[in-house]
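Figure 2 data, in text form.
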Amino acid sequence: MPEISNIATGSHAATGGGAPSRKGILSAINLPFLVIIALLVLYGLIVVYSAVSTDEDYSFSRQLAGVGVGVIVMAVIWAFDYRRLSDYTVVFLIINIVLILSPHLPVIGVNTMGATSWIKIGPLPQLQPGEFAKITVILLDASIMARYQGRLDDLTEYLKAVGMMLVPFICIMTQPDLGTGLVYLFIAAVALVVGGANVRYLLVTLGVCIALVVAVFLVDEVLKNATGEYKLLKQYQRDRLLVFMNQGSSDLTDEGYNLQQAMIAIGSGGLFGQGYMQGSQHALGILPEAPTDFIFCVLAEELGFFGVMVLLVLYAALVIIGFRIASASSDMFGVLIVMCILGMWLFHILENIGMTCGLMPITGIPLPFMSYGTSFMIMNFALLGLMGSVWAHGKDNTRRTSYATR
């Protein structure tokens, strides 16, 4: 069994070194994948255009610019052989730390709504490094677990692997950004499960996580009684959880108000919606953060149940194609990359849609390819490029051992 100590030095055998094998253009391009990508992005732009049309704080041209840059990034990464990255675990760890902590640097760091999550460099638009770090978190977790070749039963190695995966979460909580931190944790969970971690270790880890969450709330209550204020969780974080647990209350302030308006917008859409650019909730400014966190409500209000089903079908097609790409990969690193990407998207989709329907606590987790945001759009295109790279290069088993035989 490979040791984590070897991860730090990259001493295990190189995977996929050298130039990628020569392939025809058609074998490197997954046409159904590209079609679904194009439809999703186009659908997202249509909905975003409506959402930003009545809000001067957002620019549709900037969203288009994000798509343009994203397409270029996707093409470059698609052409690159992802297998060359499997030895750079520690590099990914360092990049994660630098990216996530960069908003704390003076001059470039920007504090927005109580969180230091953005950077502003000269005339360039604001960027959210924590979004881009999702890419390196996926590569970090995949490179860690790929070394165990689908089976991790050694407790010491398991603890070392989990410890390295927790570093990005600890860093993001210094901002603090709990929503993004939860995404990091879910990516790590997918990597552990797909990577073959011992089931008993996973169950114990889950139990410890639940116990820690309960402990945080209990200790915070003690600190509140002693000091008069909560120390471990922000007030808005507690409010979101309380709103989720007490949806029948008459509290219409802040988070409770946001949830009620979101549900009204969704319910008013009916079967076919009120009509494109005819939604009243976001047009009147009643629906909070319509282009970003609550973009699903804009879609449901204007295009109704039919529009929602179109989106869900597109997401389902993307996931199915993703599974096919993972199953076609000849190495564990490629499988883990694709599965972690799909896991991250599923978490975003379930959390974002769930929170607007009152099924999940409200967080700032956006909806893939739909929510407004340049950083988020470019990051998603980069992940598409990684999946394309796995498709284009992962099937070349001239230098690999087939995953099915491991």
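Caption note: The chain has one domain: 30-405.
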